[in-house]
Design goal:
Elements lengths: L7 E5 L20 E3 L5 E3 H11 L4 E6 L4 H9 L4 H6 L2 H14 L2 E5 L6 H6 L2 H4 L4 E4 L3 E5 L5 H10 L4 E9 H4 L3 E9 L3 E9 L3 H7 L9 E11 L2 H11 L11 H11 L1 E5 L2 E5 L3 H10 L3
Parallel strand pairs: 1-4, 1-6, 4-5, 8-12
Antiparallel strand pairs: 2-3, 6-11, 7-13, 8-11, 9-10, 9-11, 10-12
């Protein structure tokens, strides 16, 4: 039987953005501007939210620091000031109403202490309420190579599967030490595979010995794209790690819990037909500004 339809998405956005300091002293990195393919300059978080909505997901939970809840609520749910509204063109006045319609689908959640990506995801547990959910990074935007958005591709694979799905991309040796990587066995060659290991930021030596996938070029590996369709089982393992204070690199991480979900329920990998753009590092953000709207 296919999995339950996913109706909720979680977007962690509670980090400090230290790699983009000092700009992030005054502006959350999720609010950095980017020109979208429709020609409008938007904050990164709006582009991500629009990706979610276009995929057919009905509710979005944005996880942020308590002191930043107003920032996201003001953007999505508060109309422009009277003075600004009067200066807007008729088209932008209408557009401001569209942004508030997006806001109607958004719940702002909080992470009181910034203790890692896994901890941020766990903060959405009660809101997710034992349902499967779409998980997206708060500092990545996506461009599909097909008529289906990247998020919709993941959801389609999930609905045909019986387990969690991780979106994947191909990366070479210079970049794998910054990403979560996987290995597995192809179900559909270079498209869908059964994951047999999820590993965070491997060394080159470890990847060469343990993370090779049939048919991939030498020193080319499958790494996490930044889109996930997850069963609520992930919260069991995150909660266990938090209760037992099991930290990796000083924080509660997601990747090791993903591997435990894989062992418990199985896990599917899908090579996304599209590209992920990082806006969370200076050089990557600059390149995204150049390439994303093309």
């Amino acid at each position: 039987m296919p999995n339950t339809k996913i109706t909720k998405a979680v977007i962690p956005a509670a980090g400090f953005g230290t790699r983009l300091y000092p700009a992030t002293k005054v502006v959350k990195k999720e609010l950095f501007p980017i020109m979208d393919r429709d020609g409008k300059v938007k904050p990164v978080i709006q582009v991500i939210v629009e990706e979610v909505i276009a995929a057919g997901v009905e509710e979005i939970g944005i996880v942020t620091q308590p002191e930043d809840t107003g920032v996201f609520k003001d953007f999505f749910q508060k109309p422009p000031s009277k003075e600004l509204y009067q200066k807007l063109s008729p088209q932008n006045r209408e557009y401001s109403e569209y942004i508030q319609e997006l806001g109607d689908k958004i719940t702002v959640l909080t992470q009181s202490e910034q203790e890692g990506y896994g901890h941020a995801v766990f903060c959405a547990k009660e809101w997710v309420n034992s349902q499967p959910f779409l998980l997206m990074l708060g500092d990545h935007v996506y461009a599909s190579n097909t008529e289906k958005s990247c998020a919709r591709q993941i959801l389609d694979v999930y609905e045909q599967s019986d387990c969690s799905v991780i979106g994947l991309d191909t990366m070479s040796v210079p970049t794998i030490q910054k990403a979560g990587c996987i290995t597995g066995t192809w179900r559909e060659f270079k498209s869908v595979l059964e994951i047999t290991q999820v590993y965070e930021k491997p060394t080159v030596e470890y990847a060469r010995q343990n993370l090779r996938v049939e048919g991939m070029k030498e020193d080319e590996f499958l790494c996490i794209f930044g889109l996930y369709a997850l069963t609520p089982k992930i919260f069991n393992f995150l909660e266990e790690h938090i209760k037992n204070n099991f930290r990796e690199r000083g924080e509660f991480q997601l990747t090791s819990c993903l591997d435990r979900v894989r062992v418990a329920e199985g896990m599917t990998g899908y090579v996304v037909k599209g590209k992920s753009f990082d806006t969370g590092m200076p050089n990557a953000y600059r390149q995204t500004m150049i390439d994303f709207s093309q």
